[in-house]
Amino acid sequence: MSSTATSKQIPEKLKRVLVIGSGGRENSLAWALSRSTTIEEVLVTPGNAGTEDIPGCQRLSIEETDGIALAKVCKFKEIDLIVIGPETPLANGLADELRQYGLIVFGPGKLGARLESSKTWAKKLMMEAGVPTAKYWEAREEKEAIKIVNQFNQALVVKADGLAAGKGVIVSDTLEQTKQAIHEIFKGRFGEAGTQVLLEERLSGPEISVFALCDGKEMVLLPPAQDHKRLYEGDKGPNTGGMGAYAPAPLLDENSLQDIKALVLQPILETLCRKGIDYRGVIYAGLMLTQAGPKVIEFNCRFGDPECQALMPLMGPELAEVLQACSLGCLEKSPNLSIQDSYSACVVAASAGYPESPELGVPISIELQQKSNSLQVFHAGTSLNDKGQLVTAGGRVLSVVGQGSNLDEAFQVVYQGMKKVSFKGITYRSDIGHQVRKS
Ligand code: AMP
Ligand code: GLY
């Protein structure tokens, strides 16, 4: 059964949700869904050591690759909505598989997920939709790629076509660096993801992330968010999954956000629809605001991490119903999603050695007995060791998130909170939000 065949009737009550994934994004999604009006229980699989700290949340140990076991547990537990967090299961067709069992799933099928899983496919879609993006060239062999660089005679951005955990992009300053990057990708630096390469003209300007919750035809936009991809202060050092974020980012006011919707998001959703792809899930547009106007740097088929952690505390109690309506293809029947009129900031605490070789198994102390309404700690790479002690289990360990009536206030809440978190080798940036902070 295809996703279009699922009923458009909203079930009477949305009580039980399953979130698939184990990161900070999924921890914050579970937290926000558990605050939604009708929700009684949120299951998370495989989750992390923070899952069961959230009232009403329970952790399961089924892997995202095991579609049959996931479908079984959803039937048994009478799950009304499944939210798939990460890109890999989406790219592998988990949403399609679960829909075949008649389950209600928030997340695109395999064809729609190519928006993220093939940069070349996404570029062609942008061309078809008339969406502004950097000029590009495709290459399947090193020789072909080098020829393009020589013809263009300028440093280019080199991208592995497939999924590479956010690390498949090399931005170079010189021709030599571009050629070196091409050589490394074709030698297998990003494995299978790099058997096809995209070369792009290098753009410049501030970056911003915009998220649209889509039901196949219609969409709801979330406040724009700003990510910080580099490991070190001053936006230096290696690229990471993201070291912090804030929202709403003042870089895009409401009018500019509506312009992005008209220029980028609606044309992409319409083009997907025209191709017969019923896209029910998040379209994440990573944009660069260049002198020549906004241009798409990349699309992702899921929420950003850590942008999601910053955004979730701003979501109203209708969130679960809105995601359910997207999954059913009937956004028009859902209540409006209310968004809190405040600012939210998120800072990621990473392990020593992240991103190359994070130190695992290090005990973590969190001395926030009473979390206020405007402060959250979302776990990511955490687990309990055999003594029941909370320890690091990944590169990005947790994020501290705070809200305030302006961004300065929100960051004050976060950095005060961060003082109460400690583990050996803790690494976090103290300049997240430097673009907008006055203090
Ligand atoms: P991506 O994984 O495609 O988001 O790329 C990672 C980062 O590389 C982006 O956040 C940008 O900072 C940078 N980048 C990607 N494409 C370009 C481009 N065409 N011009 C300049 N910077 C880029
Ligand atoms: N924060 C960037 C990403 O999730 O891809």
What is the arithmetic mean of pLDDT?
Answer: 92
State the helicity in percent bands: 25-40%
CATH H-level superfamily title of the largest domain: ATP-grasp fold, B domain
As a whole number of angstroms, the C-alpha radius of gyration is 21 Å
CATH fold-level name of the largest domain? D-amino Acid Aminotransferase, Chain A, domain 1
Which percent range describes the beta-strand content?
A: 25-35%
Shape: globular
**How far apart are the first and last residues' alpha carbons, in Å?**
55 Å
Q: Work out the number of β strands.
A: 24
CATH class category name of the largest domain: Alpha Beta
Helix/strand structural class: alpha+beta
Question: What's the CATH architecture of the largest domain?
Answer: 2-Layer Sandwich
Bound molecules: adenosine monophosphate, glycine
Strand order of the largest sheet: 3-2-1-4-5
Determine the number of helices (DSSP H or I, runs of at least 4 residues).
Answer: 12
Uncertain residue ranges: 1-7
Q: How would you sum up the major sheet? A: 5 strands, parallel
Count up the domains. 4
Q: Explain this structure to me?
A:
It is built from twelve helices and 24 strands. With 439 residues, it is an alpha+beta fold. It has four domains: 16-108, Rossmann fold (3-Layer(aba) Sandwich), CATH 3.40.50; 135-200, ATP-grasp fold, A domain (Dna Ligase, domain 1, 2-Layer Sandwich), CATH 3.30.1490; 207-333, ATP-grasp fold, B domain (D-amino Acid Aminotransferase, Chain A, domain 1, 2-Layer Sandwich), CATH 3.30.470; 343-422, Glycinamide Ribonucleotide Synthetase, Chain A, domain 4 (Alpha-Beta Complex), CATH 3.90.600. Strand 21 and strand 22 (390-392) form a beta hairpin. The longest helix is centred in the middle third of the chain and has 21 residues, at 254-274. The structure holds adenosine monophosphate and glycine. The site of adenosine monophosphate has 13 residues, from strand 8 and strand 17.
